[in-house]
Each structure stands twice: as structure tokens, then as C-alpha cells.
Automatic annotation (TrEMBL), chains A, B:
<dbReference type="InterPro" id="IPR032466">
    <property type="entry name" value="Metal_Hydrolase"/>
</dbReference>
<keyword id="KW-0378">Hydrolase</keyword>
<dbReference type="InterPro" id="IPR018228">
    <property type="entry name" value="DNase_TatD-rel_CS"/>
</dbReference>
<protein>
    <submittedName>
        <fullName>N-isopropylammelide isopropyl amidohydrolase</fullName>
        <ecNumber>3.5.4.42</ecNumber>
    </submittedName>
</protein>
<dbReference type="InterPro" id="IPR052349">
    <property type="entry name" value="Metallo-hydrolase_Enzymes"/>
</dbReference>
<dbReference type="Pfam" id="PF07969">
    <property type="entry name" value="Amidohydro_3"/>
</dbReference>
<dbReference type="InterPro" id="IPR013108">
    <property type="entry name" value="Amidohydro_3"/>
</dbReference>
<feature type="domain" description="Amidohydrolase 3">
    <location>
        <begin position="75"/>
        <end position="422"/>
    </location>
</feature>
<dbReference type="GO" id="GO:0016814">
    <property type="term" value="F:hydrolase activity, acting on carbon-nitrogen (but not peptide) bonds, in cyclic amidines"/>
</dbReference>
<dbReference type="InterPro" id="IPR011059">
    <property type="entry name" value="Metal-dep_hydrolase_composite"/>
</dbReference>
<dbReference type="GO" id="GO:0018764">
    <property type="term" value="F:N-isopropylammelide isopropylaminohydrolase activity"/>
</dbReference>
């Protein structure tokens, strides 16, 4: 059993100043006075300040806590910082970022297939190493306060399982700092590239947690065949599904409805996510309403990045209807485009901007998507800032949640399972 | 005549490493070797490093420069930084930011009029001082490398000319660090608030450089009357026009066409800007094409912020047609919404994201809008990085222009009319 740490002068979710007691990787209690701690086990650190609390009665105000819970506890003064639960990136592509490599001059064509073909060629030409690059993005994510990542990882007949292996290696290396979940992702198509299905099967056997899919109509040109294949893999391995659905308008609506129907027929409620789902941003609001009811009935989750240049799902109305929404940074600084940082507060801002969220309650909703929404989709147990939850949290200097989102301040402290993993915007681990 | 400064190891617009010689507030020459400078007049500074150049032949490689041009010159080592021309914010609202004030909890309603009425009330309740607040935004803008601002400034029957006076006071205070141009802006309506026209007239007499307008149909409910009034003011004072045109779709197209017709009838070509112009993002591409031809014929400029939640003008196609586009940060951290920083590189990124610009040439176009496009609209003489131009520039650590936009690095050095005004992200002047 580790010594406890008491974070004083913090404002969980922007609320009143309080303290948060952490031990054995979990939040043990809130509202313990620092003077209640009998002793300090570790030396003071500069930032954030660790102070010698005065002696006092440990049980005061929290009778359930025994004095032994607090024995040898550290006190960390949060300095009035906002405490947010660990940020979650529920849609990443760790294997393809080019962060840390020379600038990639992007001259790619306008179609989706241009980007897919270009990427497969450039991966070889430039040596985009899945382990090294995912490790780099992971370390940047830790510095920005991300506690969990769901990463789609390319599986195709060129790269085989090398990207899966690379990301798994990076995940293992940083397992004490961040949780990473893998989606086996047929980026270059599933049925149109014979051999991919077998590789997907192997990736799932190796431990990828989620079955990926991609544009059943637009990419594989065989929506029934594509959905049969990935639902078959999901059934075989007992794993959930996350499909990239870029198809817009009525075509996307068709693929979405086919997915909903399969979920209901197979009893996969709550286990399927449709990423992007641009069709939900189409002008035909009656069609969107019908799809929304189907999503709700089938418990299908929607991932949106708040793309500025595409029609997008309307976060507020989908949430009001009861649909679970999640968000993520998607690809960043890769052959698809140069934008993006691993900062989920910046992503939350972009989702807010795209959805015309201006009020504080609207921005709080956007952050709820990027935290609790993502946790629901990834089925993370004991997530949050309540006693009993895993101690995954971030401290930032901001007056309100909305200010944290729009200002995106340097992360003062990032804690994962009770341990400090980043300080003042820098991870305490290094990238290759 | 001031001593010259030679900025060595800089890459203007991301090109090859070179040096840039500055004297008397202008760029005198490029490509002068540091060893060509006979002496150094000022002591070395830490950042960026100023070094003692070796003795040598000043005229080498630049026979037109006399040795006396370089006498007593400083050498500033740019360390390989990218040199960009001074960034321009061609659409600001300096008088209404709440930066530096306690967090404003936004609970405003969804309509334009909700925001306008809310702001007028909150200005009084919260004491949003136009001088203090514009000074704060100006100082932040200087730190972010902005050399010129066009600010719309509210004129209405509540505030009268106080905002104009406040922004003019701040402009005077920071006149050596930044150029600020004022648009007299009837934010609460022109004809629907009797007395506003007279206040606008007085604001222009006081020195506001541009006549503002707002939604001729949507706000004043009298497009003919509104346009008659502001074109009348423009004629009387011999000043250009910049109209906020939020009206979308066919209504906006109607007001835009009325504006084009007036410009042609009155010979005001090149003197009118239509800000926002959401109607140019409407689905009817044939109507947009007809408007585009009208804009081109009338030399009407378009300002876009790349709003993520509204239909927007298509930057690439308008530019390809020959229309001049400019951009700006618009309101930031005000009663309208909490978003925004004075950083024009961030604005350029948002314009790029909204327009789905991914290629390096597309991002270069976005930055061209935020620099040379803005300069064309504001009719800035001698703007740029060529010899003879005013020495207004920014140094940033980035490999390419695209990287500067998507990474938005801290501004290493900001120079205005030859003088350093900000360093490492901090202005050398202070805000009240």
C-alpha cells in the first residue's frame, strides 16, 4: 500500500476549492483538511509546492477515514487550479503521425482514395516507423493530460501487422503513464484487398481490442459484404466495433441504417461506434431524426472531431436525444494533412466552434463529450473525479471549464493512477 | 539616421537562409554577409544572439550599399528562424474584449439580436472600458506578431463616441508598436436608432478611417436606406466602407448585389469590403458565381474568419477568380463568446481548416490572405519583406510556412518599423 497524497486547493470540474486524497492509484476522498494529516513522507518539491501540513485530527470532517489512511501522506498544493478528469482521445491514429520527422510537403490530391494511396506509398518511402511515431504521439499526449487513447491502427497487405506490433510495443513501454486501446483498422479496404481479413483476424487474436471498418459502400463497394465481415470478426473474438463512416448524405445514411439493423439483429447494442458520421450533418432533418432514433434504439455511439470543412453530427441535439457522443483528435501531422496537436482541450474547442457553442453550459457539454462521453464509449470503469475512481486527472490554471477549453493552458500537473506523469507541459517520460 | 541592424540566418517566407538589413524603419537590402559589417554599435543581447561580426568588405555582394550604410550596425542572429511579414488583423473588435477581466459566464440567447442587446447591457453592468480593453488586446496582438489592426468600434446612442475615444487613446499610446485603423461601426443598428447616423458622422470627423455598416436588411430592415446612409457618409468624408454582412443565403445575396450596384454606380471600386459574407457559402453555386463576377467587377473585398459553424466564402475559388480576400480574428473573449486569441497564425489555421486546406501550397495561400490580402484591403503601402518595405516582421522557429501556421510557435522576435517590440512571446510594452 502506497502513501497517500493530498491535493489541496484544487477545484474539481471548476467547483469550489477543496482537497482530493489519492492513494493506491485511486481517489480516496475529497474535502480533507491538510491540517488533518499527521506527517509528510516525501520532501517538498518546487512545483506544485509540497508543504508540511500542521498536525491535527485526520478524521475531522471525514469520519470514515482512519488515521492510518493518511499516515505518511504527501500534501501537494494545487494553487487553486482547475482539476479535470484525465482527458481521453477516443479517435487517434498513433501509427501515422510524422511528429519529430522532417516537414512533410503535402501535395496530395483531393479524393479520399488519393490520401489512402499516397499514405501507403509514403510510409515506405519515408520510413514512418509505427513504434517510434506512436511513442512520440503518446508522450505528447501524456504531456497534454491525456489518460486514455483509442487508436485505429492500419492493417493492410503491404504493412501487414507491423503497425499493430509497433503500437503495441509503444503501449507496453508507456503502460504506467497512459492506457492505449487498439482498433484493427482496414485503412486500404477489407474485401477489395484479399488477405486483409485474415490479417485483421490475426490482429484481434494478438490483442487489438476493437474491430475497425471503413466506408462499407464507398471503400469496399460492397456494404453487405463489408458489414458481414466485420460483424463476423466481432462475433468470433467477442469484441466491439468502430467503423470510419465518411460517406455523406444519403449514402452514409444507407450504411448507417444497415449498421443499425445488424446491431439490433445481432444483439450488439452498446458495442458499436460510427466515427465521423458526416451523414448526420445532412440538410434532410427528417432523415437525420429517423437515424437518430435508430442510433438510440441500437445504442450505437457517434464519434465526431467537429470537422470544420465537412457536414458534422449536431452534438447538442444528438446528446439531447440520448445518443452517446465521443470525440478524438484523429490523425495529426501526417500525410493526410499537417494540422493537429494531441491536446484534447484544443479538440474540445474545435468541437465547440463547429457546433457554435458559446454559452458556458454548452462548453461544459463539449468537455463532457471529451471526458465522460469518451469513457462511456471505451467502457472505462471508475472514471472521473469521485471517490473510488482511478486517480487520472489534470490540473490547469483556469477560472472555469470554459476558460480551460478556449485558453488551453499548459498542463500544470498530469496524474495517472495516482502518479505524476507530466508537469508544466512536459511528460516525465521521454520519446524515442 | 539610425544605425542599421542586420538580421542574419533568417528565412524570409520560408526560403533559403539569408540576411536582412534594416535601417530607418525599412528593409534596406537582403543577402548582406555579416562579416561585411565594419563595427557593432550595441552590446550583445541574449535572445536572439547579437554577435560581433568579423571585419570585412561591406559592399561585397551588394555593390549598391555604401560602407556608411552599415556603419555601427548591429547584427542579430535569427538562428535559422522563419521570417514572416507583420501579421495583420483586418477585422477586430478591440473595444469589446474582456481579456484581463473576471471570467464572463455566457448565458446569451441564440439570435444575433440577443447578443447585440446583451452586449449593450453588459457593457454598462460590467464596466467594459474601451480604452483599457483595447489596450490589452493591442498588447497581446503585438506579442503575437501583429503589425496592423483594422478594428470595428461600436457607435451607438448608449455609448456614444466613448468607444471611439477609448480605442483612439489606446492607439495613440501604442503608436510606435502597432498601426490601428478604426471603423465607425453601428453595432446596434443605424436607422432603427435615431441619432446613430449623427454619431457616425462625428466619429468619422474625429478620424475613424472607415465607414462601417451592418446587415442592411436583417438589422435596419431597410436595405436601401441603410446603404444610402453609409455610402452618403463615405462620400461626405471620402472614406472607404466595411459592412458586416451576416445575412445568409438569398437575403445576403440580395444585400450583396445592392452593394455591388451602388459601388459601380458611385465609382467606389476597390473601396468597399463585405465582412463575413456568409451568403457566398450558400449551396446555389450558380448564384455564388454571379455574385463573384459582380464582386470582381466592383472590386469589392471579402473578409472571412473561416467560421466553423456558418456557411463561408470559399477562399480558394474566390481567390482564383481574382477577388481580394482578407481575414481577422473578429471578436474574442467577449459577451458574444469566449473563443479567440489575438494570434493571426491561429486564425490562418482556422481559415485553413474551414477550407479543407491540406497541401502546403493551400496553407501558403491562407497565410497570403492574412498578410498581403489584408494589406491590400487596408491599402498599406510598402508592405512585405522586399527591400524598400517597412521593416514590420516576425521571426518564428518553424521549418516551413505551413508548420508556422499549424504549430503556431511562440513569436521569437517581433519587429515594427525596424524596432523590436516583442520577444519570446512577450511584448516590450505593458497593458493597463
Amino acid at each position: 500500500m502506497e502513501n497517500a497524497t493530498l491535493y489541496t486547493n484544487v477545484r474539481p470540474a471548476g467547483g469550489e476549492l477543496t482537497s482530493v486524497l489519492v492513494r493506491d492509484g485511486r481517489i480516496l476522498a475529497r474535502g480533507i483538511p491538510a491540517r488533518g494529516i499527521p506527517a509528510v513522507g516525501n520532501p517538498a518539491r518546487d512545483n506544485p509546492a509540497m508543504v508540511n501540513p500542521a498536525q491535527g485530527n485526520p478524521a475531522q470532517g471525514n469520519p470514515a477515514l482512519s488515521a492510518s489512511s493518511l499516515e505518511g501522506a504527501l500534501v501537494v498544493d494545487g494553487g487553486g487550479a482547475l482539476m479535470l478528469p484525465g482527458l481521453i482521445d477516443a479517435h487517434a491514429h498513433l501509427d501515422k503521425t510524422m511528429y519529430g520527422m522532417p516537414w512533410y510537403r503535402n501535395e496530395v490530391g483531393p479524393r479520399l482514395i488519393d490520401k489512402i494511396d499516397n499514405e501507403r506509398a509514403e510510409k515506405k518511402r519515408l520510413g514512418i516507423d509505427p513504434y517510434r511515431q506512436s511513442a512520440r504521439q503518446i508522450v505528447m499526449s501524456i504531456a497534454d493530460g491525456t489518460s486514455h487513447i483509442r487508436s485505429h491502427v492500419d492493417v493492410d497487405t503491404d504493412i501487414g501487422l507491423a503497425a499493430i506490433e509497433g503500437v503495441m510495443r509503444a503501449r507496453e513501454q508507456y503502460r504506467d503513464q497512459i492506457d492505449v486501446e487498439l482498433v484493427a483498422f482496414p485503412q486500404s479496404g477489407l474485401l477489395i484487398r484479399p488477405g486483409t481479413l485474415e490479417l485483421m483476424d490475426e490482429a484481434l487474436r494478438m490483442g487489438a481490442e476493437v474491430v475497425g471498418g471503413l466506408d462499407p459502400a464507398g471503400m469496399d463497394r460492397d456494404p453487405k459484404g463489408h458489414l458481414d465481415a466485420i460483424f463476423g470478426l466481432a462475433d468470433k473474438h467477442g469484441k466491439p466495433i468502430d467503423i470510419h463512416l465518411h460517406e455523406a448524405g444519403e449514402l452514409g445514411a444507407f450504411s448507417m441504417q444497415m449498421t443499425i439493423d445488424r446491431v439490433l439483429a445481432l444483439g450488439m447494442q452498446g458495442k458499436v461506434t460510427l466515427s465521423h458520421s458526416f451523414c448526420l450533418g445532412m440538410p434532410d432533418t427528417q432523415a437525420v431524426q429517423a437515424l437518430t432514433e435508430g442510433l438510440l434504439k441500437a445504442g450505437v455511439h457517434i464519434m465526431t472531431t467537429g470537422s470544420a470543412s465537412r457536414p458534422v453530427p449536431h452534438v447538442a441535439s444528438l446528446r439531447a436525444a440520448g445518443v452517446t457522443i465521443c470525440t478524438g483528435n484523429d490523425g495529426m501531422r501526417d500525410t493526410w494533412g499537417p494540422y493537429g496537436k494531441p491536446d484534447m482541450l484544443e479538440r474540445t474547442m474545435l468541437v465547440g466552434l463547429r457546433n457554435n457553442f458559446r454559452r458556458d453550459d454548452e462548453l461544459a457539454l463539449a468537455l463532457d463529450v471529451a471526458t465522460y462521453g469518451n469513457a462511456r464509449v471505451m467502457k472505462l470503469a471508475d472514471y472521473g473525479l469521485a471517490p473510488g475512481c482511478h486517480a487520472d486527472f489534470v490540473l490547469v490554471q483556469a477560472e472555469t471549464v470554459a476558460e480551460a477549453i478556449v485558453s488551453r493552458p499548459v498542463r500544470k500537473l498530469v496524474v495517472k493512477r495516482g502518479r505524476v506523469v507530466a508537469r508544466d507541459g512536459r511528460a516525465l517520460v521521454e520519446a524515442p
